[in-house]
Please model this.
Amino acid sequence: MNASSRFTSVERIKKTSEFSTVYNKGKRYFTKNLIVFVLDNKGGFNRLGLSISKKVGKAYIRNNWRRRLREFFRLYKEKFGMGKDIVIVVKKEAGLLRKDAIWQSLENEMPTIFKKIVH
Model:
């Protein structure tokens, strides 16, 4: 596995202040199951932050979403453009999806977000 395909620690948004900045200053995009906040950053790479409330479901449901979102970001991070802070909020209703339906919903919903972000 080459280094560019990994999801490294520097590609994660961790601090509450960083999340707040993206929430307050970022552009919002809505899908059926997600809210995506995007803000240009000064770095030359994309960073991802995830917000998955307990309202979505029990821990195993939230972890399924978290794992699939991280993997989706790892595979498609170039499609967001470069130098972006991205925070993805999972909506409450998304907790009703089965494990296999999560990936399918990402593949169906995210291309429209990619088009809006890049253009």
